[in-house]
Amino acid sequence: MAKVKIDDLHLYDTELAGLARRGYQGGMPIQLLSDAFLYEKHGSYFHTIDGRFAKIWKLRGMDASLLNNDDLWSLSKGLGDVLNKYPSGSAGQFIRHTHRDIREVLGIYRAGIEGGEDEFALEIANSIVERQIVAASSPEGFFTKLSTEVLERMREDSLAEIEDEKLRNNVRTLLMGGDPWAEEGEDDVRANVTEQIEREVSQGRYPFVTDFYLVLLWSPDYLFGKFIDNTAKNALASMGLIDANKLAHKEYTKHARRFGQLCHEIGQALATFGFQPGSLNGQGLINLQYQLFNPVRCFKVDPPKYRPDLPILDCLKNPSQVAYRETLNNAPMFASVETEEKGWTIHDSGVPYFIRPVSVLGKPTSSFPGMLQVAMSGIESESLITINWSVPSPVAMMSRLWTRGRMQSGKEAMKIGDKDLLAQQRNDLEKVKSKISAENANNREQFFDVSLHINLMGFVEAQVDDQAMQLENMLWRVGHKESLRGDAAVRNSMPLNFRKSSMKLFRRDTPHLTESLSHLCPFFVEYQGCSDPAILMNNRAGQPIYLDLWGQMTNTAHSLICGSTGTGKSFTFNNLLMALRVKYRPKVWIIDKGDSYESLCLVLDGNYIESPRLS
Predict the structure, then answer these.
(1) Would you give the distance in Å from CA 425 to the centre of its chain?
(2) 316 and 362 fall within a common domain
(3) Domain TraG P-loop, which positions (predicted)?
């Protein structure tokens, strides 16, 4: 065969190779940002570009407001039982995606609106929906149109509930930052030398929605290793001793059945413990990736339709010949991604969208259910939280314990370190051995090599960077704001993108036992309301939820709104009354002691009867 001349390389180069050979540094092809390749509809599973089988379940978040401490631990134990079903050599992901796409929630609410003859009720409903949309698209959230005058009026309405004039003035002075008990006269230079710092609480500012996903990644086994197996088969096929296509079909079917059995066991366990799993299909993954990679376009144009026209075996046989529209790593990509040392910047429709990852390098000293959500209190942002793990083989696991035991014995023999600390380390080692022992039939656990990445997202770079810096200090002193390998952290966080081999260079993994990993997974949510979209309001986290005071799920005719002065009781009740007008249009009687609802009564064309005050 004639040797290709340097001058003729352009005839064989790909576009990117040609640019690189000429000294142009082109960007990464967009399809290389995702490992997803194909979807097999007959088994509801995926193939990655490196030949692994994958399964994605969409889970329901657990309503923590309805759970006591025992329930929290019981649910985490249930998730631990699910994680124990991951076989050695497999990998997995737990993904929590918090985003501002509330169109589905608003669509269900709109569908239940009946305008009829009451045009005012229809205007109220449209106003409620518009307020949610504005809050979702504005950097200030629900406070976008909140002026100083509105805040002053709300404060005065709350103070009007206090009858004692002196007490009312004192509370007003406190709210304004003054001291109502300070004596009048000349200021004392030795007094008032400190200012009280109040804890900032930033929660419920944005109407975010949260989705949860559990991923199983499994590599099929090959006889004597993949290389030798393929080489032997090719040699036999070339001599006509075997039919390569039939043999490939047989092997693929065997692996698919084995993987299907694993998925069935995990899916049944998820259903048993109340996670209500749903199997994500090819279109579902395209929609998820489309939302992640196109933050602006996804609100203007519907996702592309997934069209798997070629048989799965033909696609696996010649991956390079598969059309782009049939591959999951290319079909949903329309924006351009700029990979940086501190993360990603997605340029979509001329608008930059920033992703800044914060990783966990180490392990907290203790664990409890929902620990990550507690640590992230006050961080409000669109985010993608991904926990990646791989299950080491039993041989590797026992080798680690043996090495650790030898190191511990050496320290004890040389009397290095504190005596009590050495005793505690020895005790911890024995506890780990007992937890993973085959004799521990009831509470047996297994090892996971875990990496945690919290990717904060937003359109304002300074705000996202500040939140990432704040989050770094909140993660149990083991948080790390990525400044050199942020691009790798974000890529590893995307669905189906985690590979165990990537940890050889990108060292972010830490050994965890089953219980510790289940405590780390953030699957708890705030109060979720009910299923009937009668009233649209927001829970403490800002998520739009439905309420129904007279629905089938309401077991009592009484409700209580309580709180201290200035916490928004009247504001909440006003919104509740306005929302009731949309669907039920009830007759309402209010005993208004503080004259707080006179204006609302007049606006709604009601009758306000003022009774004479008794002296």
Answers:
(1) 35
(2) yes
(3) 536-609
